[in-house]
Every structure is written in C-alpha cells, then in structure tokens.
Amino acid sequence: MNMIKFFRKIRQQLLTENKFSKYLLYAIGEIVLVVIGILIALQINNANELQKIELRNSKNLNSLFEELKANKVTITKNLNTVRNQISNSLYHIDSLSNPDYEIADLTTYFLNSQNDLGPISINSVATTSLSELVSSGGYSEIASDSIKGSVSEYQSELNDLDKRISAFETYWSNIELPYTIEHHSLLDMWLKGQHVDLKKTEKQIERKLPNFKRNIRYFHVQMDAYKNNRTYVNMYVIRFFELSRILESIENLDNSVDKLTEKIIEVLEE
C-alpha cells in the first residue's frame, strides 16, 4: 500500500507541474513494472502448479506400482490355474478316447476327474488405482509418453482377458454344462465332494435335511456319452482352444504388467 501511495504521489506531482513528457515516461514505466510483476506472479504460480502436478504424478504412479505388484502375484496364480486346466482337459480327452487306455472303474474315474475340470476359477486383478488415475485426469498429466503407452497397453490386455473369460463362460454354460446335466449325475458328483457339509447347511437354514448317503451311487453315469464319444471329445477340443486363448491373454497381461512396472520405476528414480 505504501508503494502504491508513493507512485500515486509522483504521478500527481508530475501532473501538477505540467510535465507531460515525464509523466508519459513514468506511466509507461509503471505499466512495464505492472506487467513484470504479473509475469513474475504467473511464473511463480506456474512453478507451484507444476510442483503440484509432479507430486500428484508421483503419488499416482506409486499407487499404481503397488497395485501392479499385487496383481503380479494374482496373475501368476491364474497362469498356474489355466495351465493345469489345459493339461487336465487334454489328459481327460486322451483317457476317454484312446482305445489303448484302460480304466478299471469308469464311473469313479469320471466323478474324480470332474473335480479337476468344470468351470474355470480366475482371480480378479485389482484396478482401483488404474481407474482413479484415468477418472481423476491423472493420466493426462503424466509427462512420460512411454508410461502413457504402457498404461494403454495394460488396459487393452485387461479388456481382452475379460472378453476371453466371458467367451469361456458362455461355452461352459451353453455347451459343457447342459451336456453334463443330460448325461451325468450332479447329485453323486456333489456328494463326492469334500466340501459338502449338510450339518452346516442345517444350522444355516434352521431346517432338518434329508440324510443323503455318500457311500452309494444314486444314478449311474451314461458312460457311452463320454467313452469313445466324438461329440464329447469335440466339446473338450473346443474347451482346450478356449482355455488356450485365456492363457495367451494372461501371458500378454503379465508382460504388460512387467513393462509398465519397469517404466514406472524408471520415472520414479529420475
């Protein structure tokens, strides 16, 4: 305020003394000072804003980095699950279609093998940090084009895996499950499972349940629908290809996680 009063006093004095040329020079000088002041303020403001953006970037990238580390563990488990499913499916095809393969008790074999097959259980990867990065505008603030490219690739692989899993679920629900229901005894398969605990169910629903016996077979499996059956083998060949596509998607996702993690480390260490 004192500086403003000082400049105002000089301006009034020049006008009073009718020194127009000096007043004009003074006015221009005052304008220049104001412009310089504005530019300095803008520069300081821009510097502060850049610092805020850098802090947000660092926070977002650290959060995404931790999420990727956790997802790496999940992806490794999913890879093992799918690889086991593919192996079990091919062994199942061979054991039921190979004429040289002898099975002493087909019904028991089938009941046991179904526990290793059926629908696939894939653990979901976390995407909270990724979603927040995109929805909050943090993605557009990332200065590194390589990280932006890796994030886009990571998102694409996530979407591709979802499509592959959805395709397998459609196959299983529309083809494999109806075939199993038509030719197999889900009751016997259910009772053979180690997880069946009817006493626990009775407590939960507060009702007395039938005394299902586990040491008998309620229904025999229609083994001609499975043993040396072309339709069944064809169905499991389709299953193999669907699982192979899922495996490929998970492997691609795994690679994209490694690539994005590497890019984030490079930026954070700069």
Secondary structure blueprint with pairings:
Elements lengths: L1 H15 L3 H78 L8 H9 L13 H8 L2 H4 L3 H39 L2 H7 L5 H8 L24 H39 L2
Please report the number of helical segments.
9
The counted number of beta strands is 0
Largest sheet: none
- Structural category is mainly alpha
Instruction: Calculate the mean pLDDT score and round it.
Output: 81
Approximate strand percentage: under 5%
What Rg do the Cα atoms give? 35 Å
Specify the helix fraction band: over 70%
Please describe what this structure looks like:
By secondary structure, this protein is mostly helical. The chain has 9 helices and no strands. Helix 2 runs antiparallel to helix 4. The longest helix has 78 residues. The model has no long low-confidence stretch (mean pLDDT 81).
Brief rundown of the structure:
By secondary structure, the chain is mainly α. The protein is built from nine helices and no strands.
Features:
single chain; 270 residues; mainly alpha
